[in-house]
Batch of 2 targets.
Target 1
Amino acid sequence: MENLYIVLEDLTMILSHSNNLDTYPRLMVVITFIYTIATIFICVFNLKSAKAAREQAAEQKRQFDETNRPVVDFTIEPMQGAALGLVFQNTGKKLAREICVEINDDFINKLEEGRQRYIVNLTKSNFILGINQSKVAGFCLVSSQSYLLNFPSSIKPLKSFCLSAS
């Protein structure tokens, strides 16, 4: 680009010292043509730069959204005696809203009747977890802890799990 300006300055100098009136209009056409081509190149490169900037901004937004979202983990942890706890913990960087849980019917049927109602109530309501907050839904399988060891591991307690970050 710098070389183009030097050439244009040289042409302007030639024109200013030229006594031939016929050369001046021709040189002005050449100079205008060169400026037009240079302007077109500048516009093309500016459009490419703007497109790259838009793509970069979109990628930054995607990365921000990926990093700043709720991440809710589900575990089953032993409590006292034959009690277990369904533990939901938000380890993400955003509030988890409208968390809904659906418990497997086979799992609920293995519980005592009073405990079944408690777990079913958990599935009927949505809840919210703040950042690094957890919720424990504790229940007892039966009064005998030996039954806990015989509880079928093939029965998965969680059927579905959903949350909203909005």
Note: The radius of gyration is 36 Å.
Target 2
Amino acid sequence: MCWGPLVLFAAMLWSTWVMTTAALIRSSNVLIRRLVAGHVVDALAYDLPGRPTVSGFLVHPVKKLEDLGEDPHIRTNKSRSCGRERMSELITPDELPRWVPGELTMDSAPLGWDGVRIRGYRYTALDVEPPGLQDYMIVVYQDGATPMNRRCTGDWRSERVGPGSISLLTHAAQSQWRWSEDIEVTHLYLSAGAVADVAAQAYERQVRDVELLDVLKTDDPLLSGIAACLARESRESGLGGRLYVDSLKNQACVHMLRHYANVTFREPTSCGGLSRAQCRLLIQYVDENLDRNISLADLAAVAQLSAFHFIRKFRVEFGCPPHAYVMRRRIEHARRLLARRDIPLKVVAADCGFADQSHMTRLFRRLLGTTPAEYRNSVTG
């Protein structure tokens, strides 16, 4: 009997088994090291009560807050170091409670305000580190007093805050906040776009960035009053609400720019006019909407420009401000309609976007030196 092939086959089986066993042992050791390093506990292996182990390796349980030197009454939510983040990583006011949990007491979101928002919160003691916000945030402390610790762009700062105190946080800034007592606050949010537009109009220059100073505590009755007015408006929604809110928003932006902001500007560039496509779209939009109220924001949106740049480019191209051009087109359309005697003057005024017939008459007299009725008689005989 020939034993050579059998011996060779047995040797191959033995070699395969040895290699497979060695690989399994190496994989087990890697897994064990990873489990231990990650403090992952195998629920099936315990050597001593309360002392979890993984495959014979002792894993120390996670320390409590008091073991780490932290206040056990403060809830923690830490995520990253401080600094300014990329725009894609910024969060909205709606997302903030994921990092700063509290009881929501007020929210103006259902009112659809443009560029401004007011929210109220009740907070317990917290230690939190939220990502940067898309908006600028003004915190107005309403009830409760507490030591407040915050770190934004540098070292920790500490102040005692209470009713009437205000904290400011610039947009896109990472921050860490820590307080030890229950408080109630109002958050006033101003969008980056709203602040930039007001800054561009105030400075009459193209703004690159607006950064608020690192103010943890200040007493500012004006900002407190604006926040209180917006909070009241969110509850009551009185007459002229949108106009009222816009005026408060602009007042808050100007006040921040005057007292709490560093503004950087873009390099000046030559201010050319509008493109042919933009002019065509604007003329078409105005003529098709003469019967309604046409705002500067509407026209700037058609041209896809900020209001600040749109005004300058429009004046270069049309030789007059946007509102003067719109009024001129209303007068021209009214003259065409007045050439027909079958259209009442009130209907002409409404179709051309005048507030009423007397408004049309005043503008006709001022711009043409005659009244609509006199003009009709002169062209129709």
Note: The first strand starts at residue 46 and ends at 48.
